[in-house]
């Protein structure tokens, strides 16, 4: 386990990914690996290795917007929630006034496990690329400017926020969407319209809405079409834009990460390429670990 180093390039020989080069306080160094799992979210490693990928998102869509989240402390959330619940018209009126002043002021304060802390997962800024350093920098500045603006407005207008202060901002900028691998399998909206089953399933994703079936996530959406010994887990998986809105969510990223870890370990143990590891073996190990792999074992819990 190594923190405080940045993966800058893959080591690739004849289409085999053999590790990653890092930059750090110690300078540049490489780690060789029998299997590399790209969990950068942005597919930095598979893109550098020459894998095909998609990045055809609509930057104005909510699913592609960037922002740095923040929290206010010293809030009286009970007073705020009572105000919203007991006087919904006054709350709406206040928000309308805020909208006249600046659209960002209407960002909603979310509750947290702490009565004195409010969370803001907005404002979401559109038209920026998560792969552009200039854009990322601008979004950091805009997020912080807006955070201070929202604090001033909430302190002077919103019951419960009179004595609030900025508790913290997120450890890193929030990216929802950038690169998606072109894998040997690709989840697309059609899968949701069918029955959602997949014999190569490594885990589940709830339907896009209650009208759609729970989807079984195929192992192949982490396996590149050409490169060897590389997997892409997390939000940089292989899927279409519609499916990405659901598959990028945190529980699905856990499913993909666990599936990739199991597949990588089996590939090393069995001396196989990741694409050649038998899906039955991956599924058996996942079940052994207590994972719910198919819809048929929903609710049965860990199996021994
Ligand atoms: C503001 C916001 C709110 C959200 N709210 C929810 C929610 O309520 N519920 C939900 O389920 N989902 C939510 N999501 C979506 C979800 O959080 C993400 O899609 C998910 O966390 C993605 O996980 P990941 O591990 O694939 O990628 P990331 O969480 O992006 O993690 C990638 C990690 O890799 C690191 N990294 C990147 N490049 C490199 C490199 N070259 N070298 C070294 N390290 C690198 C990054 O620093 C980061 O730590 C939200 C997303 C955002 C942005």
Ordered list of secondary-structure elements with their pairings:
Blueprint: E1 5-13, E2 16-24, E3 27-32, E4 36-38, H1 44-48, E5 53-54, E6 70-73, H2 77-86, H3 88-101, E7 110-111, E8 118-120, H4 133-157, E9 165-169, E10 180-181, H5 189-193, E11 201-205, E12 215-218, E13 230-232, H6 241-247, H7 250-270, H8 279-288
Parallel strand pairs: 4-13
Antiparallel strand pairs: 1-2, 2-3, 5-10, 6-8, 6-9, 7-8, 11-12
Helix pairs in contact: 2-3, 7-8
The structure holds flavin-adenine dinucleotide.
Flavin-adenine dinucleotide binds next to strand 1 and helix 7.
List its salient traits.
19% strand; globular; three-stranded antiparallel β-sheet; 8 helices; binds flavin-adenine dinucleotide; alpha+beta; disordered C terminus; 2 domains
